[in-house]
Amino acid sequence: MASYDLVVIGTGPGGYVCAVRAAQLGMKVAVVEKNATLGGTCLNVGCMPSKALLHASEMFEEAGHSFAKMGVSVSSPKLDLPAMMNFKQQGIDGNVKGVEFLMKKNKIDVLKGAGKILGTGKVEVSADGKSQVIETKSIVIATGSDIARLKGIEIDETRIVSSTGALSLDKVPGKLLIVGAGVIGLELGSVWHRLGAEVVVVEFLDRILPGMDGEIAKQFQRILEKQGFTFKLGAKVTGVDTSGKTLKATVEPAAGGAAETLEADVVLVCIGRVPYTDGLGLKEAGVALDNRGRVQIDPHFATSVKGVYAIGDVVAGPMLAHKAEDEGVAVAEIIAGQAGHVNYDVIPGVVYTTPEVSSVGKTEEELKQAGVAYTVGKFPFTANGRSKVNQTTDGFVKILADAKTDRVLGVHIIGREAGEMIHEACVLMEFGGSAEDLARTCHAHPTRSEAIKEAALAVGKRAIHM
């Protein structure tokens, strides 16, 4: 019977990072993966392939609509969708091979098959009708999440698709109906809209991007509508008739009322994700779950079974790859006797559309609800020199600081490259920095990041360029 210090079930960003850190700390480590390739949802059918298509579709749209005004004359671009999908696949393959390399470099054994926890210190790995039991001092559950399904609507990944199917459509749909106005739906909607689809988004709530700062979400909705998106908020899809050549979706007001029928070539169901625990044997092993099916853990990522830990999408918290990675590092260090820690107040979120939306820390709504007195500094990209000369002035930066201490509590950005700009705010907040600290930090000119400095100045009502 093979024996290890640590066995990690799942090789998504949380799992493989956990395994690498544990190996760095001197542990003998194995990972268990049921799929043909390593990397989990993120590398294979999630974050990475969607970013490839977002980039490629943005270049397609730029060539068709923006080059001429910059004095670059090109013939009208033609879409070669199979070639674009190949571009996406090359990115997937490169990242998957990168994880395989990391396993070899760190002498981590890769066990192919489905993992099942038999209790403290034992994991069964099954593949092709055969199984083996391995012994281990510690187990980390890093099995991630699965798509959430809509009752009464069957996903076939051809006409009614999840995010997985939406990444591999064989032609651009004439009409794309998206159920859910969260991050994934808006990103994939952007891809297919740029390539020629008419996009309608149906959202149960009365706003897009639930959980993000309300002011940012409103401006983002206006920008997407200007781009050509149609939103039906406060509405729900109750059924999809698949009998005809086109799909017919029944849409009703969330509060009740008369239904309407919307036709579509493809319906994309993007209503969130749920923890993936199928086949892990958690109930039999005594691993406790919460009322949402997530693995319950203590502050040190330990489950109710000794020696069994859990991280990432399968536990509470934002379902983000970088959150899972940080938890993977923390739990490996805790198992090694160190003081692993994750600061959940400083986990950025990004929507990779054009423009991008990024956020870290508290929203205005959260501060109001908590009764925290705060000050606001805002600066628009219309007043930023770099954005003006590039004619990419949509959006603004918003900084929320404690009214008494000036400590930065939240930063929210909508604009080009917002996903890259958010990190100076993350570093500042990690060290408990103030808006004054940010305002007095010299920023290179001309850059979009100057808008962050100006927003920090605006907290003290002393922005220079506005």
Layout of strands and helices, then pairs:
Layout: E1 3-9, H1 13-24, E2 29-33, H2 40-45, H3 47-65, H4 81-105, E3 109-112, E4 114-119, E5 122-127, E6 130-141, E7 145-147, E8 160-161, H5 163-166, E9 175-179, H6 183-194, E10 198-203, H7 214-227, E11 230-233, E12 235-241, E13 247-253, E14 260-264, E15 266-269, E16 273-275, H8 282-285, E17 308-310, H9 321-335, E18 349-351, E19 356-361, H10 364-370, E20 374-380, H11 385-390, E21 396-402, E22 408-415, H12 418-430, H13 435-439, H14 450-459
Parallel strand pairs: 1-2, 1-6, 2-3, 6-17, 8-15, 9-10, 9-15, 10-11
Antiparallel strand pairs: 4-5, 5-6, 7-16, 12-13, 13-14, 18-19, 19-22, 20-21, 21-22
Helix pairs in contact: 1-9, 3-4, 3-6
Summarize the structure.
The chain is built from 14 helices and 22 strands. By secondary structure, it is an alpha/beta fold. Helix 1 packs parallel to helix 9 (321-335).
Find the structural class using helix and strand composition: alpha/beta
| Uncertain spans | none
Q: Find the CATH topology of the largest domain.
A: FAD/NAD(P)-binding domain
Please give the radius of gyration in angstroms. 24 Å
Q: Give the end-to-end Cα distance, rounded to a whole number of Å.
A: 69 Å
CATH architecture of the largest domain: 3-Layer(bba) Sandwich
What's the overall average pLDDT, rounded?
98
Gross geometry: globular
